Amino acid sequence: MAEDYFEYRHTVGFEETNLVGNVYYVNYLRWQGRCREMFLQDKAPEILADLQDDLKLFTLKVDCEFFAEITAFDELSIRMRLTELGQTQLEFGFDYIKVTGGAEVLVARGRQRIACMRGPNTNTVPSLIPEALARALQPYGARPASLTGRTA
Q1: Can you tell me the distance from the alpha carbon of 152 to that of 150, in angstroms, rounded to the nearest whole number?
Q2: pLDDT tens-digit profile of 131-141?
Q3: pTM of the predicted model as reported, rounded to 2 decimal places
Q4: What are 84's strand-pairing partners?
Q5: CA distance linking residue 67 with residue 95, whole number of Å
Q6: CA dist 29 to 34, 62, 148, Å?
Q7: Ordered alpha helix ranges (H), the chain
Q8: Which of 48, 101, 110, 147 could pair covalently with 94 via S-S, beta carbons 3.0-4.6 A apart?
Q9: What is the pLDDT of residues 37-51, one digit of tens each?
Q10: CB of 92 closer than 8 Å to CB of 116
């Protein structure tokens, strides 16, 4: 059975911890971005050329709620799900799972809201979510409607 999330696996390094030895909070946000990038590379590679042209994925909002500390060499599974798909914006949910010898513990949960934009940097305007991206997201959560049936 296929999972309903996209998974990015990560081993925490010393450079991601603070002086006390636990993971510095900004790294959770970096891992959200990395998970999103790996999703695009693995599941929607045709979008990468579009990003080099004029498509821009603007991150409008991120958040993360922490439940347990993690430290160097902890093994993580960052699991991304689509929680909302509109016409020009989408939202992802992220579960941060510490994996130890087969046991899984939810250590944090986050969200990320993204807007699709097009045009030169001096004149970007909202753009419909590309059909290829919407198709690639279908298995990972909220069931997208057709492009014409989606709401903002």
Answers
A1: 7
A2: 999 999 999 97
A3: 0.88
A4: 91
A5: 11
A6: 9, 7, 32
A7: 26-43, 46-53, 131-137
A8: 110
A9: 999 999 999 999 899
A10: no
